[in-house]
Amino acid sequence: MIELRTPAEIDQMRPAGRFVASVLEATAAAAKVGVNLLELDRIAHEMIRKAGAESCYIDYHPSFGASPFGKVLCTSVNDAVLHGLPFDYALKDGDLLSLDFAASVDGWVADSAISVVVGTARDEDLRLIRTTERALEAGIAAARPGNRIGDISRAIADVAREQGYTINTDFGGHGVGRTMHGDPHIPNNGRPGRGLPLKPGLVIAIEPWFLQTTDRIFTDPDGWTLRSADGSRGAHSEHTVAVTDGDPIVLTARG
């Protein structure tokens, strides 16, 4: 079921958005050469505890997950792009790291993701990250009344195709509210003018993710981490966005 939020309810979601943004800022800043993925998860876990927030991940067990996730932060490294389950791995110079985090504050959820390079960056990694960021910006710009879900999807896809990337539509954006994942589904490719009409009060997570040389993925033996089929690297950017009568509101804006 798709629910539209009142302006007052959108205001009530702002603390969750600010908190999720703060956790991503802290964990991205801590992602240095030699830092363990489990340490990044610990940082996020401690911030959740101090804020009195609730993790959306630790007990999360959808049909595509092998078991409850068990951690509070997704850490996807290099050829991993989504749902990266933190494990005993020390970050290396040049690693491409995607961090995805969702939490509930006072009963409202926000969801966001960021990709960074640890240490020395490759040009092709920076281009991939920037493309996901530009695609996210384009998707947000399309999140206006009068448009439809397909307009968001096509705006994302146009940016990816300009840079020569292909697009997987198995996983994409989604509704956000009292729970982390709800309707509508927002694929990263679509036809303009198609799909659900966008109305004020719709709150959605828009999340472009691309791989450098493929659009095919497989699930790691850990039962969660999604990796590229050809070993190429991936990047992921995401914000929680509220559709309004005017400009969209990015609830998880950082900085």
TrEMBL record:
GO CC annotation, single: cytosol
Entry binding sites for substrate: 83, 181
Co-factor(s): Co(2+); Zn(2+); Mn(2+); Fe(2+)
Domain Peptidase M24 as annotated: residue spans: 12-245
Catalysed reaction, written as an equation: Release of N-terminal amino acids, preferentially methionine, from peptides and arylamides
GO molecular function (one): initiator methionyl aminopeptidase activity
Any single biological process term in GO: proteolysis
Keyword Ribonucleoprotein in record: no
Binding site for a divalent metal cation 2: 111, 174, 207, 238
Keyword Membrane: no
Residues that hold a divalent metal cation 1 according to the record: 100, 111, 238
Pfam families per UniProt: Peptidase_M24
Function recorded in the entry: Removes the N-terminal methionine from nascent proteins. The N-terminal methionine is often cleaved when the second residue in the primary sequence is small and uncharged (Met-Ala-, Cys, Gly, Pro, Ser, Thr, or Val). Requires deformylation of the N(alpha)-formylated initiator methionine before it can be hydrolyzed.
Subunit note: Monomer.
UniProt-listed NCBIfam families: met_pdase_I
Protein name as annotated: Methionine aminopeptidase
